[in-house]
Amino acid sequence: MSTYKSIARRGSLLGTAFALVAATIPSSAVFADALNPLTERSLLLSSSAPGFQDSDGSGNSAGSPNAIGENYAPAGSGPNGKRSGQTFDFKVSSSANIQAFTLQYCTSAAGNCQAPGDNNEMTPGNAGDFRNGVYDSATNDTGRPTNAQAHPNELSDLDVVGSWTQGTGAGQFQVYIDGVASPETWTMTTANDEDTAHSDELTGKNNFITLSSATGDQINAQQQVQIVFTASESVHITNPGSRSFFVKMNTYSDAAASAYVNGGVTVANVMTDSIHITTKVLETMSFSVGTQNPDTQPVQHGSCDAIDVINSNRLNLGNPDAEFSLETGAAWDVNSYWRLSSNSSGGATVYYSGDTLRNTVGDHIADMPTRAFSQPGTEQFGLALVDAGTNTGDDTIDTVNTFPANWVTPDVAPLVIEAPYTGGDVASISDETSANNAEFAFMETSQLVPEVIAQNSDEVISCATSKVRYVGNIAADTPAGVYTTKINYLAAPQY
Questions:
Q1: What are phi and psi of 335, to 5 degrees?
Q2: To the nearest 10°, the Cα dihedral for 61, 50, 494, 188?
Q3: Could you please report the per-residue DSSP string of 244-271?
Q4: Which residues are CB-contacts of 11 (< 8 A; sequence separation ≥ 6)?
Q5: What are the residues facing 489 on neighbouring strands?
Q6: In this structure, are residues 458 and 320 in contact, taking their beta carbons and an 8 Å threshold?
Q7: How far apart are CA 471 and CA 412, in angstroms?
Q8: Beta pairing partners, 263
Q9: What pLDDT score does 244 carry?
Q10: C or N: which end of the chain has fewer Cβ atoms within 10 Å?
Q11: Per 3-state DSSP, what percentage of the chain is helix, strand, and coil (rounded to 5)?
């Protein structure tokens, strides 16, 4: 392409040579600059959990209220992959009045489209009705499970579920242009759009979204467009069961989605499992007398002093000699890891989504919305990020901080850790008399609005690997019980 354009600019002396070369180009060839691609593309999922998962750390399913009436894993929260929401973000490369957007979910970025998923359990008595792209209309059945049989064998297909309306509430979608909600009326339709020529089994599920408007919006080149789908219990997107998937994106200048303007490109995402954390608070009693109020002393103190999946990603936080329970006199920490690779030249952003530690009767351990030192004797649940090879003094694997020459350096670069989560590389977490403690942060609101923990916006991400260090502290009056949480990590490359 660039060669042809360079020749064309050389003038008439090369006119004959250029005509000769051009004659060899098929008449159907389309130059890249005529494709008008969408740029700086990203897709953020409200949950990266597979679509058959919708429970919290204790295994309580979404829709099951706890003792104080709160939903355990509400639609659109980090643990709920069965009822998820999505946010598409991109810029257009040419100006037009846009009256339609289409989004097609497939297992590959090009070629015949197969909707993503791995739920291969067939409806009893109808096995083979919809396999290898062949639909047997005589049985009047797609061969797929009914809603009552949804997701057998812990597998799931992507599906766009329910009747979506325009708005910002649960079960609604909204179109934004440069951060401002579109003033026009948009409608949304869903359909199954898979290619019967695909060599593998098709799902028959809704994998094609069309947003259309009779009037549309004037969107100029390089303006940013955001399409937000907010999940509800009955209107949502069900994630596929595993592996990566791609969404083909296009814009049109007519509501019938026939007059193409921008697109011909995809965004990608992938399903990952959650990190499960469980701890205990044992029954305790403390009584003390003295002559000095610790609250008057200029020292740090508590408020009441005196990337293989292993074991289903479950961690025990606390004293191993006391059934992994937390204590008022010492802090305990535990680690998980994540790794990200992406060929997106626009970088990527990593988020977390989850609740603080809670028991099943509504008690919870306070989160750390502002970065703070670990303080034994004070209720705290927080996390911090460090390079995967950093020795934080909490396990023996890291004590030898050297690696063979042929290893990739196990660090989080080129992603940059967000400031609230950069204080975890100090070994001490229990020294109440010193400020030389590790620092942590955590926002329980992240379960509905994912929190950014690391990002890079201008280069390819090659094997960025981070250790996540969690800390737990309790006060003397923290209610006894078994506390759990479930933290999801979300990655959104920008293409």
A1: -125, 150
A2: -70
A3: EEEEEEEEESSTTS-SEEEEEEEEEEE-
A4: none
A5: 352
A6: no
A7: 20
A8: 250
A9: 84
A10: N
A11: 10, 35, 55
Q: How many CB atoms lie within 10 A of CB 300?
A: 15
Contact 40, 90 (CB under 8 A): yes
Please name the residue that has the structure tokens 């303080």. Answer: 375
Q: Cα torsion for 53, 55, 58, 64, to the nearest 10°? A: -150
What is the DSSP code string of 105-137? EESSSSSS----B---PPPTT-TTTEETTEE-G
HSE at residue 39, side-chain half, CA atoms within 13 A, is 13
Could you tell me whether strands 244-252 and 96-106 are parallel, antiparallel, or unpaired per DSSP bridges? antiparallel
| Mean pLDDT for back-to-back runs of 10 residues, the chain (495 residues) | 32 33 33 66 90 79 56 83 93 94 94 87 36 37 41 77 96 97 97 91 92 96 96 94 88 94 84 66 45 43 53 85 91 87 84 92 93 93 89 50 49 92 90 80 94 90 85 93 90 83
Q: Give the Cα separation of 451 and 439 in Å (integer).
A: 17
pLDDT of residue 267: 86
User: Parallel, antiparallel, or unpaired: how do β-strands 86-91 and 368-373 relate?
Assistant: unpaired
Name the maximum alpha-carbon separation found in the chain: 101
Contact partners, residue 16, CB within 8 Å, separation at least 6: none
Q: What count of other Cβ atoms lies within 10 Å of the Cβ of residue 224?
A: 15
Backbone dihedral region for residue 110 (phi beyond 0: left; psi -120 to 50: alpha; all else: beta): beta
Reduced to 3 states (helix: H, G, I; strand: E, B; else coil), residue 47 is coil
Q: For residue 380, which of 396, 369, 391 has the smallest C-alpha distance?
A: 369
Kindly give the pairing relationship between strand 451-456 and strand 348-353.
Answer: antiparallel
Tokens, residue 25: 């180009």
CB atoms within 10 A of CB 139: 14
- Please give the Cα distance from 132 to 202 (Å, whole number): 7
Partner residues linked to 472 by β-bridges? 332, 381
Could you say which DSSP state residue 95 is in? -
CA distance 113 to 115: 6
3-class SS at 219? strand
Q: Apex CA 27: angle with CA 21 and CA 29, to 5°?
A: 85
> Would you state the pLDDT for residue 401?
42
Strand pairing category for 481-493 and 348-353: antiparallel
Q: Is 126 helix (H, G, I), strand (E, B) or coil?
A: coil
- Distance (Å, rounded) from C-alpha 417 to C-alpha 225? 26
Q: 32 is written with which tokens?
A: 């890249």
Q: Of 465, 374, 364, 479, nearest to 412 (Cα)?
A: 465
pLDDT computed for residue 394 by the predictor:
53
Q: Which of 382, 294, 368, 282 is nearest to 332 (CA)?
A: 382
Q: What's the N-to-C CA distance of the chain in angstroms?
A: 21
Going by C-alpha positions, the residue among 338, 333, 346 that lies closest to residue 470 is 333
